[in-house]
Model the fold of this input.
Amino acid sequence: MGMSEFYGTGDEAESIATIRRALDLGVRMLDTADMYGLGQNELLVGRAIADRREEVVLATKFGIVRDPNNPTSRSINGRPEYVRRACEASLRRLAVDHIDLYYQHRVDLDVPIEETVGAMAELVEEGKVRYLGLSEASAETIQRAHAVHPVSALQSEYSLWSRDIEEEVLPAIRELGIGLVAYSPLGRGFLTGRITTTEDLDPGDFRRHNPRFQSENLKRNLELVARVRSLAAEHDCTPGQIALAWVLHRGQDVVPIPGTKRLRYLEENVQATEVELSTQDLRALEDLTAVGDRYPDMSLVNR
Done:
């Protein structure tokens, strides 16, 4: 996502080099969405994997609709006819004949989930999609969707500073055998310890308006990072690697997808797979809690 929008300016050449280096390092899952950069991110990913398609588990999403003339305006669309139209557009931009994992990006409250997933299931039958996923859905919605067609993955925010899915959602998907794809496992970069003030962010970076990066919330959350930094010093690694290692230790059914647009951070992230956390380490991190809402508009999540 950050290669095309939201996290300041991007560099297409470095982005493509980063994706290709990820494949060289054994990263196999690439995650995008049709709304990232108004389709530009899918085009970018398509160019990056053009001669390496067989190495990639390719995931993309539909459902958040943006107006090209007013990109800040968003709506949710889960209507069956839109599902098909969105999928075919993503296939064209990615320049592939199928999508490995196709997510509904956000739940449309005006369309029964059964209708949306029914349309997604038709795409599986036609060979355009291999597996189905949901993003930021509630336990009840996931159960209803799974009754129509098996849901293979749920993508939700999950990290040391976003653990609300542990109460209801995580038990529900584990009961159904659904994997968790944890987005923002680095807490939108905050857990790396590289952000101490909003002035560390580019002027166009959306995190400047994120509640957790604001005034008193920021000060409290920096205390959380201090704990992570302390443990990182003990392990001779970075705070970001500790944060990723924590997610990797949550179970074999949890796959973190840290985003980066730079080679040096990609390689740092991959090295987190080598960090071993003891029971005592995990206990030391257990009570960490971020303050502030995850999004300025929480109406878009957990439905």
In short: The longest strand covers residues 70-76. The mean pLDDT is 89. Residues 162 and 290 are 7 Å apart (CA to CA). The first helix runs from residue 12 to 24.
